[in-house]
C-alpha cells in the first residue's frame, strides 16, 4: 500500500513540476515588454546580452555587485546543490557509467564538507531574514518555508548517509522501477521515506515558488534587453493592438 501511494505521488509530483515550469516559462515568453528597461551599464549588442546572462546565471554577478556576503552564501548553496544532484545520478542509471563512478568516489571523500556547505548557507539566509529588520519586514511565510524545506532535505540526507543508512540496493531498485514504469517495493527506512517525501514536496512546490527565478531570470527585461534605444526604437507591443 505504501509503495503504491508513493508511486502515484511521485508521478503526480513530476507531472506538476514539469508542466508547472513549462506553463511559467510560456507565460514569461509571451508577456510583452512595454518599455526599454535594460539595467545599466547594459550591453549594446546581442553577444553582450548573452555574455551578461551567462555571468548573471552562473556566477551571480549582479548579486556580487549588490551584497558580497549574500553572494558568497548563494554561491556556496548553489554549488553544493549542483554537487549533490550530480552525486545522485548513480541512482537513476544502471549500469553506472565509469565517469559517474569516478565522480561518486570523489564526492564520497568530501561528503561531510558538501553536506555542511549545503546546510550552512541555508542557516545563514534564515538567520538573515529573521535578524535584519528590513529583510524581515518584506519576508512572508513562503520565504521561510522554502528555507526550512531545503534544510530538512539536507539534514535528512546527511542523517541517511552517516547515521541511519538505508539499503542502497533497495533504494536504487525502487528508483529504477519508477523510471522504467515498473514500480518496485519502497524501502521502509524511515529517514529515506522522510527524505523522499520532502523532495516530492519540493517538486510540487517549485513551479509556484520564488525558486522559479532559476528560469525566470532569462526572461527579465532588465537583463535580456539590448541597450540600443537610440539606434532602434522600441515599440510597445500593446500599442499594436
List its salient traits.
mainly alpha; Fumarate Reductase Cytochrome B subunit; globular; 241 residues
Describe this structure in words.
The protein is mainly alpha-helical and 241 residues long. It has one domain: Transmembrane di-heme cytochromes, Chain C (Fumarate Reductase Cytochrome B subunit), CATH 1.20.950.20. 69% of the residues lie in helices and 0% in strands. The protein has twelve helices and no strands. Helix 1 runs parallel beside helix 10, helix 6 packs antiparallel against helix 8 and helix 8 runs antiparallel to helix 10. The radius of gyration is 21 Å and the shape is globular. 10% of the residues are buried. The model has no long low-confidence stretch (mean pLDDT 86).
* Classification by helices and strands: mainly alpha
Radius of gyration: 21 Å
Total beta-strand segments? 0
Averaged pLDDT:
86
Low-confidence stretches: none
- What's the architecture, going by CATH? Up-down Bundle
**Order of helical and strand elements:** HHHHHHHHHHHH
Tally of DSSP helical segments: 12
Q: The biggest beta sheet, please?
A: none
Tell me the overall shape.
Answer: globular
By CATH reckoning, the class would read Mainly Alpha
- Helix coverage percent: 55-70%
Count of domains: 1
> Gap between N and C termini, in Å?
55 Å
CATH topology: Fumarate Reductase Cytochrome B subunit
Strand residues, percent: under 5%
- CATH evolutionary superfamily: Transmembrane di-heme cytochromes, Chain C
Amino acid at each position: 500500500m505504501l509503495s503504491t501511494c508513493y508511486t502515484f505521488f511521485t508521478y503526480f509530483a513530476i507531472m506538476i513540476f514539469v508542466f508547472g515550469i513549462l506553463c511559467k516559462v510560456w507565460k514569461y515568453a509571451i508577456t510583452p515588454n512595454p518599455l526599454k528597461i535594460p539595467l545599466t551599464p547594459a550591453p549594446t549588442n546581442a553577444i553582450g546580452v548573452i555574455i551578461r546572462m551567462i555571468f548573471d546565471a552562473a556566477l551571480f554577478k549582479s548579486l556580487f555587485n549588490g551584497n558580497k556576503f549574500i553572494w558568497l552564501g548563494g554561491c556556496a548553496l548553489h554549488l553544493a546543490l549542483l554537487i549533490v544532484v550530480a552525486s545522485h545520478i548513480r541512482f537513476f542509471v544502471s549500469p553506472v557509467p565509469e565517469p559517474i563512478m569516478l565522480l561518486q568516489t570523489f564526492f564520497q571523500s568530501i561528503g561531510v564538507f558538501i553536506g555542511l556547505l549545503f546546510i550552512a548557507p541555508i542557516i545563514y539566509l534564515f538567520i538573515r531574514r529573521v535578524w535584519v529588520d528590513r529583510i524581515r519586514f518584506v519576508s512572508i511565510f513562503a520565504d521561510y518555508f522554502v528555507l526550512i524545506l531545503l534544510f530538512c532535505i539536507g539534514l535528512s540526507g546527511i542523517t541517511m548517509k552517516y547515521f541511519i543508512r538505508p539499503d542502497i540496493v533497495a533504494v536504487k531498485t525502487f528508483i529504477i522501477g519508477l523510471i522504467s514504469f515498473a514500480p518496485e517495493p519502497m524501502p521502509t527506512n524511515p529517514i529515506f521515506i522522510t527524505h523522499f517525501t520532502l523532495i516530492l514536496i519540493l517538486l510540487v512546490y517549485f513551479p509556484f515558488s520564488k525558486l522559479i527565478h532559476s528560469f525566470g531570470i532569462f526572461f527579465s527585461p532588465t537583463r535580456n534587453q539590448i541597450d540600443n534605444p537610440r539606434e532602434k526604437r522600441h515599440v510597445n507591443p500593446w500599442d499594436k493592438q
